[in-house]
Amino acid sequence: MGRFLHRRGWLTPYALLTPGMGWLLVFFVVPMYYLGKMSLEQGLFPLFSFGWAWGNFSDAVSAYQTQFVRSLQYAGIATAIALAISYPLAYWIAFRGGRWKNLFLLLVIAPFFVTYLIRTLAWETILSDNGVVVTFLHNIHVLGSNGRLLATSAAVIAGITYNFLPFMVLPLYVSLEQVDPRLIEASSDLYANRAVSFLRITLPLSLPGVFAGVLLTFIPAMGDFINAQLLGTPRQYMIGNVIQSQFLSLRDYPTAAALSFVLMGGILVLVLIFARALGTDRLTAGAAA
Amino acid sequence: MSDRYSRAGFLRRAAAGGSVLTVPGLLAACGGGGKAGTTTAAAVAKTLPKTIVFSNWPLYIDVNKAKQHPSINQFEAKYHTNIRYIEDINDNDTFFGKIEGPLSQGQSIGRDLIVLTDYSGLPGRMVQLGWLEKIDKSAVPNIANLQPAQQHPAWDPNRDYSLPWQSGMTGIGYDPKKVGHEITSIDELLTSPKLKGKVTFLTEFADSIGLVMLANGDDPSKVTKASFERALKRLQKAVDSGQIRQFTGNDYAPLLAKGDIWACAAWSGDMVQLQADHPGLKWVLPKAGGIVWTDNMLIPKGGNAYAASVVMNWFYRPQIAAEVEDYVNYICPVVGAAKALEKNDPAVAKNTLIFPTKEMLANAHQFDITAVNNQKYKQAFQHLIGA
What we know:
The complex is a heterodimer.
Chain A: H1 2-7, H2 12-39, E1 41-44, E2 47-50, H3 55-63, H4 65-96, H5 101-109, H6 116-126, H7 132-139, H8 153-177, H9 181-189, H10 194-223, H11 226-231, H12 239-248, H13 253-278, H14 280-288
Helix pairs in contact in A: 2-13, 3-13, 4-8, 4-10, 8-10, 9-10, 10-13, 10-14, 12-13
Chain B: H1 7-15, H2 23-29, E1 51-55, H3 70-79, E2 82-86, H4 92-104, E3 114-117, H5 122-129, E4 162-174, H6 176-179, H7 186-191, E5 199-202, H8 205-215, H9 225-240, E6 244-248, H10 252-258, E7 263-267, H11 268-277, E8 282-284, E9 290-298, H12 305-315, H13 318-328, H14 337-344, H15 346-350, H16 358-362, E10 364-365, H17 369-372, H18 375-384
Parallel strand pairs in B: 1-2, 5-6, 5-7, 9-10
Antiparallel strand pairs in B: 3-9, 4-7, 4-8, 4-9
Helix pairs in contact in B: 8-9, 9-18, 13-14
């Protein structure tokens, strides 16, 4: 094999691509094909038959519009909050972390050595009606005596924000780390104050990190269902909860498949709009860096 | 709704690679590994295999201090074989989702015994689909110990395919200290302003709809469109007003223990176990009536029917059933188990949640399985519970 590749050098890149492409083919393309086919089937479990049933899509969207919109809102708000929390944090670690940088990064990731489910269940306890947080908020009169945190939209959004925070922090850190301090020095030599330096130098250079962080947070948040299930009520359920119940409880595979496709398509469109808004040239520059 | 599926049509779909959601299904569809051949266990000689695989729900069998199951150990010693006892069934629908792929391809799921609940509609459906092996009744003389009330369920009138493992009742679990008085009706859960946001119901269709139907004075064993809609509407109102906080599986237990909820639709046996640590909590059968359900041992296609039948027979010995019951605390289907328990653990033998009185049983209703398998009803209910 080695000698074979050596003689035909042009084959090497393809050989290197094979494992990845093979993986994608078997575990992404083929399932996508069947999921797509399933989304156009009709009938009742277990006798579905193919029939170009495009109605599945419109039915699914009109029946679960609320959950789609809600997922969009929750994921959007959670991503915005995660960005607001992570940017200063990543900035501080990148520019002021000094030799402790790695330790701080480890601290960011440390909670994630515990599984997702356990962390969310921990929030259920933290936000419990008789827990410390709620009692404290009652005492300082932020929450009314009947108020609660668990089983509210706030709890679900907080849960999502928390669970995906590292996916925002890490790419931001990487892009901020790469900002050349000499550029900032140069800008202050040119009489830019700190705010201007930040807006003209640091922020634009960190945009690829923002882009990656937003995608890595927003996309899984859109499809999440654990947070809504454990920290919310039926009035907080997201599209992920619907897809789960369509697949496992109702066994209406065509509707579930159609919903999955609408979700994927919707996310894809949003990502494209977002990429356009941030400027593709910057992003490819980021990718090259 | 017509629930009859022809086996031919069914296999056609399987051959077309219809169930894509499982890896075996996928591989078979790719023309790859999946073996299409159906193994029939019918012709197997009447000797026990080296290992019998038994899938059950968690905390559903006796456990000793060494974390072993004495009832199973005794079986293994007597019959010189092994039982691989797996606690991997947490939810009827989810477990069914897991085994549906291979079974629809005519493949074995590597288990000789599984346990599913009658009111999930799934055992009845598996009978219709031909996904179950018949019990080898010659190996189950102890079937004579089956409680008379359990002998002829509509979905398996002669118990050809199923034997009850345990039953349970669905009623109201609550914390009298928080509520301040006794609760006896579902109406209170649905409307009391004091309980607003402190109430949960169950994600099981039959439990939640059934309890509300009884509260409405309707008969849950014969669901009609009108009675279903009445129940659904009432639940919807309580969800919209924030009265009902969540729909749960067993996870209402920690919520009730922590005080996040004060009252909920709850299963009898769970409450017996919960009361061990929280003696203040109560479980009642609502005055208007509760729901009774049964978990059934089934032999999935490809399982060893003879071996599974021998295991069933074992657990229908009153002495063994009593050992299991002493730990499990649900309702025992085996006649004579109570008597056997009286000697060893009279407290359990007298607990009416485990050995209910006649009045209780008369007020515990079965749920209409055709309604559970009605896709329209189920869809409406899933919509109600938020998904």
